[in-house]
Amino acid sequence: MGQVVITLVFWGILYQGETITYYSLKTHSFPLVLLLIDWHMNKIIIELRHIVPAAYAIVGYALFLVTYTLSTQDTIYEKVDLLTTGSWIMLIAIIVLGLTVHLILTAYSRFWFWLFYDNTKSIEISIFESNHWLVVID
User: Can you give the three-state secondary structure of the chain, one letter per residue?
Assistant: First the structure.
């Protein structure tokens, strides 16, 4: 989920129109493409309960960003310098965006599973839920 947020925020907000380099593509685009391919090929279902570790990662990165920026007086991203109210609002919006993306991908994952891998359709699939693990046998 984090890679979706990274890609959206970098290309939608932080990218300033400078020359696109291999490094910017490698760190802000390619991982999302590979993640989406992996997600669909392996029939990964995103559960609502996965929002807790996702929230830890998003909030943890935000805390790192705040700590680093305020303690070194250096910025990782120019638009999130934490000197203006707007940059604090952007930081909070990124956290909210991360959680919202998780909810959207959870719904999409459930819909994708229902559409292509549901028991009521002709594809044979067994789902066993034991404790916190979901095992899909195709």
Answer: CHHHHHHHHHHHHHCCCCCCCHHHHHHHCHHHHHHHHHHHHCCCCCCHHHHHHHHHHHHHHHHHHHHHHHHHCCCCCCCCCCCCHHHHHHHHHHHHHHHHHHHHHHHHHHHHHHHHHCCCCCCCCEEEEECCEEEEEC
* Residue range 18-67, pLDDT digits in tens: 888 888 888 888 988 888 888 878 777 888 888 899 899 889 989 999 99
- The answer to whether residues 45 and 134 touch, using CB atoms and an 8 Å cutoff, is yes
